[in-house]
Amino acid sequence: MTGRAIVRGETTIEAGGVIHHDDQPLSWEEADTRAGRRLDRRRNWAFLEGKLCVTVSWTQPCSGCSEGYGRRGFGCDECGYHGKVRNACWVPASILEIEV
Ligand SMILES: [Zn+2]
Q1: What are the residue boundaries of the structural domains of the chain, listed by start?
Q2: Ligand 1 mean position, distance from CA 1 (Å)
């Protein structure tokens, strides 16, 4: 997997409640400079409110069709009939103590 780096600009809430993040891509050189170290090119990085964050991702049962925790669903529109969904979020890099 090839990663990338972004810096998040202004977050605005548009009509209809759609959250829009003004993300700008960074070159690796720019990202390294901001981070003060060389970042792992295989990961996704973001500078959110000036803090270095990294993506963590996981697979979980689909909330639309799964009946119990840890159980794969039977499939529905929401998950494309796979019974499970990929999920990801940003976490501060400092709490993961990622070695580079
Ligand atoms: Zn589903």
Answers
A1: 5-96
A2: 26
pLDDT in tens, 27-60: 999 999 999 999 999 999 999 988 999 998 899 9
DSSP category for residue 68: S
Name residues with Cβ closer than 5 Å to ligand 1, which is an ion: 62, 64-65, 73, 76, 78-79
Q: What is the pTM of this model?
A: 0.71
Structural contact between residues 53 and 47, judged by C-beta atoms closer than 8 angstroms: yes
CA geometry: angle at 25 spanning 5 and 12, to 5°? 110
Kindly list the strands in the beta sheet with 84-92, ordered across the sheet, starting from the edge strand earlier in the chain. 19-26, 5-13, 45-48, 51-61, 84-92
